[in-house]
Backbone:
């Protein structure tokens, strides 16, 4: 019996007090899970894109990096160009917060 893949769908983005978000259907990938996450993305038929607060508007980036606190709730990550993008996560990294966007791969 084959297991059917349930495709992740857009959900409302409800950020925590620090501005972080994790899509409820996104597996809990850990650091070093690159291959596992690539396989999951492929099985979902997704294209992903990342937006970093580090390269956001200078005032927003400065506010975050000068504060020395984990709060980025005031940052509104820009969606990549095109239709159908939805948020997978907003999470902190060694280089500051990043937002991962996803959409179904466009096939001709």
Residues:
């Amino acid at each position: 019996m084959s297991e059917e893949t349930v495709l992740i769908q857009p959900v409302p983005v409800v950020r925590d007090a620090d501005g972080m978000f994790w899509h409820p259907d996104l597996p809990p990938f850990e650091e070093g899970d690159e291959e596992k996450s690539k396989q999951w993305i492929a099985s979902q038929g997704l294209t992903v894109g990342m937006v970093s607060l580090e390269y956001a508007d200078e005032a927003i980036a400065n506010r975050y990096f000068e504060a020395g606190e984990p709060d980025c709730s005031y940052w509104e990550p820009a969606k990549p160009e095109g239709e159908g993008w939805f948020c997978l996560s907003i999470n902190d990294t060694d280089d500051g917060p990043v937002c991962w966007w996803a959409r179904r791969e466009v096939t001709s």
Q: What stands out?
A: The helical segments are 34-44, 58-67. The mean pLDDT is 92.
